[in-house]
Amino acid sequence: MRYLTLPELLSVNWHVASQRKGPFGLLSRSGLEEALARPQTRIDDYEPFATLSEKAAVLMDSLMKNRPFLSGNVLTALLAADLMLRLNGMRFQTLEEDLEQVQSISLLQMTIPQIADWIQLRSHSQA
């Protein structure tokens, strides 16, 4: 399993901020580090987020809850989940109709299992 690194996630947010002409920077380094660590959670031999979809979901959820960046937190969270999937051989394909799902996630109206199910539905193996 390939997890995102701090420099990779900072790069994602930098690209989001520069495209949107918004400020770039951190509001909470600890919030960012927590979001990066959460998909790797292990308690002895138990992994609460065992599948790739669950790991991407908890990363997205944590970034949206923690809002560690000055700007672009929602889009950064979506792109971070996409990058994590791609680094692990999956392709995440959203549709225009998924905007409502992303909005629900950003408003913290979806659980991690619901987010994981949505990610699984929109993901397929890279050819």
Protein topology:
Elements: H1 6-19, H2 29-37, H3 52-66, H4 73-87, E1 90-92, H5 99-106, H6 112-121, E2 123-125
Antiparallel strand pairs: 1-2
Helix pairs in contact: 1-4, 2-3, 3-4, 3-6
What distinguishing features does this structure have?
127 residues, mainly alpha, Four Helix Bundle (Hemerythrin (Met), subunit A), 6 helices, 2 strands, 56% helix, 5% strand, globular
Number of E strands: 2
Separation of termini?
18 Å
Binned, the helix content reads 55-70%
Radius of gyration: 14 Å
Beta-strand percentage range: under 5%
**Main pleated sheet:** 2 strands, antiparallel
Shape: globular
Total domain units: 1
Instruction: Please state how the strands of the largest beta sheet are arranged side by side.
Output: 1-2
What's the rounded overall pLDDT mean? 91
Alpha-beta content class: mainly alpha
What is the CATH topology descriptor? Four Helix Bundle (Hemerythrin (Met), subunit A)
List the helices and strands in order. HHHHEHHE
The CATH H-level superfamily is Fic/DOC protein, Fido domain
**CATH architecture heading:** Up-down Bundle
Q: Which segments are poorly predicted (pLDDT under 50) over 5 or more consecutive residues?
A: none
CATH class: Mainly Alpha
Helical run tally = 6
Write a brief caption for the model:
By secondary structure, this protein is mainly α. It has helices at residues 6-19, 29-37, 52-66, 73-87, 99-106, 112-121, and strands at residues 90-92, 123-125.
Structural account:
- With 127 residues, the protein is mostly helical.
- It has a single domain, classed as Fic/DOC protein, Fido domain (Four Helix Bundle (Hemerythrin (Met), subunit A), Up-down Bundle), CATH 1.20.120.
- The protein is built from 6 helices and 2 strands, in the order H-H-H-H-E-H-H-E.
- It has a two-stranded antiparallel ribbon.
- Helix 1 packs across helix 4 and helix 3 (52-66) packs across helix 6 (112-121).
- The model has no long low-confidence stretch (mean pLDDT 91).
